[in-house]
Structures are given as C-alpha cells and as structure tokens.
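Sample entry (310 residues):
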Amino acid sequence: MGEITEFLTLMIPAMVPFLLAAQGTVLSGRAGVFNVSQEGLMVLGAAVGFLVSFKVGSNTVGMAAAFAIAGVFGLVLAYMTTQLRLDQFVVGLALYFAALGAAGLLYREVIGVTLEPPLIPTLQDKPIPLLSDIPFVGEVLFDHDLVVYAAFLISAAIYWFMYRTRSGLAFRSIGENPKAADSLGINVTWARTWSTVVGSGLVGMAGAYLPMVYTGLYTEGMVAGRGWLVIALAFLGGWRPHLVVAGAAFFAGMEVLALRAQVAGIGIPHQFVLMLPYVATLLVMVFAFRWARQPSFLGRNYDRESRLVG
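Predicted structure, serialized as tokens:
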C-alpha cells in the first residue's frame, strides 16, 4: 500500500502540466482552432513564470505572467486565422518557433551567464482540512499545492461550461458547423478568439508550473516534449474535458513510472526509460484513433462569405 500511495501521490502533481495544457488545447479545438504551438508556449511559460517569480518573489504573479504572455501568442494565432484566414498549422508552427526563441532570449537578457543558476521557492503543499485526514484518499488527493486543486477545478469548470450550459452547447457547435452556428446568431470569430487566448494562457501556465513544483530552476529542456504529448492527449480524450483528465492520469503515470525506474537503477539505459512514455503514447494512440472523434471543423478557417464551408 505504501508504494501505491507514494506512486499516486507523485502522479497527481505530474498530471497538472498535461491537464492545463490539454484543457487549453481542447477549449480552442472545440471552437475549430487547432493550436500546435503548445511545446513552444510551455517553454515560454516556464521561462516567463520563472523570471517573474524570481524578480517579484511571488509564484502567483509568475503564473499570471505566464498566462498573459501565452495568451498574447494565442491572440496572434486567433487574429491570423480568423481575420487573415491563414493556415492554422503553419501559423501554429511559426508561433512555436517564435515562443522558443523568445524564451531563450528573455532568460539570457534577464539572468545572463552565471556560474550558479538562480532559484525560486517551490510551491508548498496546502492540505485541505478534514479531507486530507482521510486515510489513503486524503494523502493522495488532498495534500498538494494550490495549482493542483486549481487544475482540477479548471477542468471541471470547462466540462460544466461545455456540457451543462446552453452557451457551451452553442460554443461546441462552432467546431462542428460554424456556418450553422453563424446562422443562429453565434459570433464565431469572437468565440474562436477568446477560446484561443484563454486556451493558450492555460498552456503557458502548464509550462510555468514545471520550475515551480520540481526544482525551482529553469532549464531550456525542462518541458521535454510534454507540449507534443498534449496534442496526442487531446485526440486521445476525444476533445472532451472529462476524458482528458483520464488521459492525463495515464501520461503522468507513465512519466512517474519512468522516473522511478531510472532512480531505482534497474540496469536499463536511462535513455530507454525516458523513451517509455512516448512509446506508450504511440501504442495507445494506435487503438484510440479507432474511436476518438474530433470536431468536424477542427483546423479549418471559417469564411461566412464562402459557399464551400459549413
């Protein structure tokens, strides 16, 4: 029981970067905007979140700054795809490279070259009174930092909005048939814009969480491909927020399993152990794609004057 408890306790915070970034991806994707710049936005979010936290002395402000800067990139993506109607995939890739470059540039400009890398305080656990005292469940679910609780609340809020409100139903219709949604008076451009901005902001927060929860350090490779896995996670979850939570648990579980295997020194090259989450992702996706359904208009721009869409 002790090993299982420890494993699950480590898995919950490991879910947070996947949860936040994947829910952000789902949010814009359900409106038809396919964002592929997650990896770059997470790196930029990690850099900005770390730098602001280091300078201001507040992880909360750093997390807000990461949300804001990634949201600006989301606004650029939304403008170029809804107003200029540029290819979503090409714009997303351009923003990915721009975010990577901006992250490295910002870190070098603010910190420079130092022998001792700067540190920020890591997030502290905030046990929920009474609930954290429940045997096994309390330790696993209710004894974490505030961002963990926020990530699950955000997931629940997105699910409630999409599946329990009339506005959510209208919002989802945009990704399925924007011309029909437009004919019902739904502002397609506005919905795609705000969902892309908020969704990108969540991706930035996912990146900012990494230096704040593990080491208090920022390194360029710390995102380690999670941004690409998030895209797979959105497909795996069928672009539905509640299934994304289950998928995030799988990805986080594989990540923790690989790290524990590496620490245990089981005699397998660490490069192979680190490869395991990605291999597992490929295997799962082979089967998941048989039933996973994506929004019909995902990745396609909408032009109300065109007769070829909707």
